[in-house]
Amino acid sequence: MRTALVIGTGLIGTSAALALARRGVVVHLDDHDPEQARTAAALGAGTDKAPDGPVDLAVVAVPPAHVARVLAEAMRGGVARGYLDVASVKGGPRRELESLGLDLTAYIGTHPMSGSEKSGPLAATADLFEGRPWVLTPTQDTDTEVLNLALELVSHCRAVPVVMDADAHDRAVALVSHMPHLVSSMVAARLENAEEAAVRLCGQGIRDVTRIAASDPRMWIDILSANPGPVADLLSEIASDLDETVRALRALQSADEVKRREGSTGIEDVLRRGNAGRARVPGKHGTAPHAYEVVAVLIDDQPGQLARIFADAGMAGINIEDVRIEHATGQQIGLVQLMVEPKAAPVLTAALRERGWSIRQ
């Protein structure tokens, strides 16, 4: 791949363009908002000038509702040898393209499983997709050259290619992305009119659950409108679980000992099923979940504190597997939770204490 055209310079399109430009590909940028394309170009993602002739690959990075129209225009204009989109749904756009009577041998639907609650070119980074799954949905009609171009794009972005059927992909993302976003928004909505005294008690748990609720509603309306059926099916199942859980909680208020035991059993059931589901979420590098020990360190909210902790851990020969930061409400301090292999925890604890860090059990 020597040349590419990225149509749509939001978070995903600009991030892909940055990764391609970093690998020496000449990237042309196009957007319905010329100012956004100029912004992406200023960031080093390519040029906002139109290509002189057909490019090797056209990457369509527009909302799902517009994918088919934009792809059809590009394909009819012969702007590239190969075409792909990066929308978060795959079955609908392909069926729309088929209904338009287009030759789809030069097209492949794809979806990088990476993003952010932020949007726009200024949120883009060349490493956004690094180590993340990138779904490819070829059909028996997909040209081998186009599949190879898509694989080359995935490689340049340092993502991990995953081949799936388009409709299977849509059911999967409903489960792992679209439905959780709505649930996160519903939880966050409870905070809107909550008393200030209650909101000030927010800890890491509520921050984790509501983080993705900060995303742009307009973008998510486009996404959910393209995949409503599978999401609705999942929410219906969650609604059933909620009904059962509410009944169990009400039973715990009963004066009847039998009902209280039934309520306790119902709550335990949903919690245990939650444990079982969480255990299936892939861990580091996509491997099976791993049980790490947590070393909690109290830090001041000052520049360089995290760098010092990581440097001290490195001097002790300890690899930090993961990290979380919990900020204290109304205070200039925080708690850094360092996840390490169980056998490394006592070594790291001793090393950090020796270097003056305050360790919390």
From TrEMBL:
Enzyme Commission numbers on file: 1.3.1.12
Domain ACT: start-end pairs: 294-361
**Hey, what's the signal peptide range on this chain?**
none
Q: What PROSITE patterns does its record include?
A: ACT, PDH_ADH
Provide the alphabetized UniProt keywords: Amino-acid biosynthesis, Aromatic amino acid biosynthesis, NAD, Oxidoreductase, Tyrosine biosynthesis
Pfam families, sorted: PDH_C, PDH_N
Pathway field of the UniProt record reads: Amino-acid biosynthesis; L-tyrosine biosynthesis; (4-hydroxyphenyl)pyruvate from prephenate (NAD(+) route): step 1/1
User: What is the enzyme's class at the highest EC level?
Assistant: oxidoreductase
Please name the InterPro entries in this protein's record: 6-PGluconate_DH-like_C_sf, ACT-like_dom_sf, ACT_dom, NAD(P)-bd_dom_sf, PDH_C, PDH_N, Preph/Arog_dehydrog, Prephen_DH
Q: Read off the SUPFAM superfamilies from this record.
A: 6-phosphogluconate dehydrogenase C-terminal domain-like, ACT-like, NAD(P)-binding Rossmann-fold domains
Would you say which domain of life the source belongs to?
Answer: Bacteria
Domain Prephenate/arogenate dehydrogenase: residue ranges? 2-289
What catalytic activity is recorded? prephenate + NAD(+) = 3-(4-hydroxyphenyl)pyruvate + CO2 + NADH
PANTHER family, A to Z:
PREPHENATE DEHYDROGENASE (PTHR21363), PREPHENATE DEHYDROGENASE [NADP(+)] (PTHR21363:SF0)
Question: Record's family?
Answer: Belongs to the prephenate/arogenate dehydrogenase family.
Name of the protein: Prephenate dehydrogenase
